[in-house]
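Lay summary. Proteins are chains of building blocks that fold into shapes, and those shapes determine what they do. In this project we predict the shape from the chain. Here is one chain we studied, written as its sequence of building blocks.
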Amino acid sequence: MYIDAIKSLTPTQWEFFAEDVLWHIGYEIIEGPSEGNDQGKDLIVRKENITYLVSCKHYINSGKSIGTEIEKNIADRVIRHNCSGFIAFYSTNSTSNLKSQFEQFNKSVTLQIKCIEFNQSDIFDIIPTMTGFTLQKYFEEPQHLYHHINKTGWEYFPLYCQNPNCDKDIISKENILSSRIQLVRVNNILELMYGCKSCLFDFGKSAREYNSRIETYKYLDGSIDIYWWEFQQIRYIEELTDLNNFIRLCCDNLDFRGVSTSLYKSWAEVQSAILQVMIPIHWGKFIDPKRILHVPEVTGMPLTDFFLFAKKNKNLGKQLIEKATNRKT
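And here is the predicted shape, written in a compact code that computers can read:
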């Protein structure tokens, strides 16, 4: 699931990625990546009083495993840089010969070099625990790196479109971007619907995109007709919580005669299914495109471009308020 994203990284980016990964799991960065001849080391890190030389090999595009013909002179390099340990950080895997060499170093009484491997599968296990703002340094949309969070051995439960003529699993990676859930008022009775956007009934101009602010929910032409959420949106815990609060708010509204007999069943099905594909809570929040302020690129430096834009735009303050609150001022 991460392979295509990792392939997009250059060897230099892979070294900086290794620095962030190792720092994330508790290593102190003594010396980071550098340009030019690195004299056999990409980073130097420390943990539990052991200083490690880090070797980063990025061969994922060729698929080549790292062997002794690539990873050479480990002991000499470790000693030269005053280290007592060695970390292999590979985007592929190591060969059996190289693994045997690592084992020999770990068992050796004379050399006393502690070797640790971070191969492709190890790194893939670490990525979901990292913060979104760190991953955004390397990947444009980190939330798309990781779709299903259910582990091997769990039984996956698909969520099928409510249209009886449609058999699509609407939370699958292929379909989730084109699915939604909607809360509808039908004859003063609340009804919850979910499915493919093309299969759900189109309520036309009465539809209003939910803006994550429960307190601003309002009547449309005297009655609440429809509110809807993207399934991609409620993969974020804040959005799922807001949706749950909104449903409860509507259910408590005295203007409604009640809820349909299937509402709570449908909502339970949605919650059980969406938990399988939740985005890790520390990977950031859902960003409504309507709240993004687009700044023209002039110099290529974002902060400079913003100040140039602000200087020319007298209504910037007003625009920022509107973007932040989703209200006209």
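What the prediction tells us: The first strand starts at residue 28 and ends at 31.
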